[in-house]
Write a structure and sequence with these properties.
Elements (H helix, E strand, L loop, with lengths): L7 E4 L4 H13 L4 E4 L7 H5 L4 H4 L12 H27 L3 H26 L12 H7 L2 H11 L10 H12 L1 H6 L3 H20 L2
Parallel strand pairs: 1-2
Helix pairs in contact: 1-6, 4-5, 4-6, 5-8, 7-10
EC number: 2.5.1.18
Function: Is involved in the conjugation of reduced glutathione to a wide number of exogenous and endogenous hydrophobic electrophiles.
GO biological process, one term: glutathione metabolic process
């Protein structure tokens, strides 16, 4: 991989947003030092530094955004949709306190997933990925969430991406997991599940102490 000076990435292995950055760096061929952080007890480096891949590594290649301005705008629109709708939707499923509430959140999430099925059809032009023949910006924006969906399936028995309901999106998810960046960077679902249990215990202890 190409070097970018003394590049350090501060993050937590189970954060989909950190995973997204790691995927971008992998696709751009940039080497870096990864420093795991405990977000419950933030270290000095994390408190004092912030970095943005698009700004800091603008000269690095290959580009992960579409070359065409319109396609680039569409990719950014759907990436924002992922952050504003998809991420909060599955987080709601994760945090549901009752089975009834979880079922309601699953219904809301299913509607969001149907929109991503439509986005895939719009952006891929019938090819393997949102970005075409290979993984790109929008693929990693969506794909960085997949390991948490796998973790929720193990924890609660819920299927967020239903192949019967959204076959195109389900097939894309399988291809993404098997892609080079998916195999290299996506954390194991068991790691996410263990972290979720840790947070649940932390919240329970905090509530009991009040």
């Amino acid at each position: 991989m190409a070097g970018e000076g003394d590049l350090k990435l501060l993050g937590m292995v189970v954060s989909p947003f950190v995973v997204r950055v790691r995927m971008a760096l992998h696709l751009k061929g940039v080497s870096y030092e990864y420093i795991e952080q405990d977000l419950l007890n933030k270290g000095e480096l994390l408190l004092n530094h912030r970095a943005y891949v698009d700004e800091a590594l603008a000269a690095s290649s290959p580009s992960i955004l579409p070359a065409d301005p319109h396609n680039r705008a569409v990719a950014r629109f759907w990436a924002a949709y992922v952050d504003d709708k998809f991420f909060p939707a599955w987080i709601g499923v994760m945090r549901a306190e009752t089975e009834e509430d979880r079922a309601k959140k699953m219904s809301e999430t299913a509607a969001v997933v149907e929109q991503l099925e439509a986005a895939l059809a719009q952006c891929s032009n019938g090819k393997a990925f949102f970005s075409g023949e290979s993984v790109g910006y929008l693929d990693i924006a969506v794909g960085c969430n997949l390991f948490w969906l796998d973790a929720m399936r193990k924890m609660f028995g819920v299927v967020v991406i239903d192949a019967a309901r959204t076959p195109g999106f389900a097939a894309w998810a399988d291809r993404f997991r098997e892609s080079g960046v998916g195999k290299k960077v996506l954390p194991d679902a068991d790691v996410a599940a263990e972290y979720a249990k840790k947070i649940q215990a932390y919240r329970a202890a905090a509530a009991a102490s009040k």
